[in-house]
């Protein structure tokens, strides 16, 4: 996944995101800092959002079921990984990936999971704290190896 794909996915879902929130076009345009005409053109697929506008939609509507169904359970994480190529996080608790994630490798107390929608990877510990996210599988495996060695008592 890259910026263009995120832009396309968010653009395609604009009308549904707005309707899910029960916003008028006037209200949605105001919240996003767009003109109503621009929003109408986006909803009719005549214009695309840009990266900044797509990021604003993901940030302001991060709890949207439409966005979660399109980008995965944490739209902001997807944005960060796309923008930075990888994400070293301060350790943050997750719900463990029961819906949007499949575990591909376990190493010690850590596991590498892949998002079924965005295809990006993350590393969680046994208590579901997230340590790392990336689209690069080899880098994620390398980081998993490092983390498992750091946590090993031997």
UniProtKB/TrEMBL annotation:
Pfam families: HTH_3. PROSITE patterns: HTH_CROC1 (PS50943). It comes from the Bacteria. SUPFAM superfamilies: lambda repressor-like DNA-binding domains. One of its GO terms (molecular function) is DNA binding. InterPro entries: Cro/C1-type_HTH (IPR001387), Lambda_DNA-bd_dom_sf (IPR010982). This is Uncharacterized protein.
């Amino acid at each position: 996944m890259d910026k263009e794909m995120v832009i396309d996915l968010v653009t395609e879902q604009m009308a549904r995101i707005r309707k899910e929130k029960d916003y008028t076009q006037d209200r949605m345009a105001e919240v996003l800092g767009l003109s109503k005409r621009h929003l109408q053109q986006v909803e009719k697929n005549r214009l695309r959002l840009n990266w900044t506008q797509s990021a604003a939609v993901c940030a302001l509507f991060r709890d949207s079921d439409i966005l979660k169904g399109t980008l995965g359970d944490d739209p902001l994480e997807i944005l960060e990984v796309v923008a930075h190529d990888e994400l070293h996080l301060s350790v943050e608790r997750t719900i463990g990936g029961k819906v949007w994630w499949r575990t591909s490798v376990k190493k010690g107390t850590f596991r590498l999971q892949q998002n079924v929608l965005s295809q990006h990877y993350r590393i969680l510990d046994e208590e579901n704290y997230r340590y790392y996210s990336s689209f690069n599988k080899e880098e994620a495996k390398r980081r998993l190896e490092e983390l498992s060695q750091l946590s090993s008592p031997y």
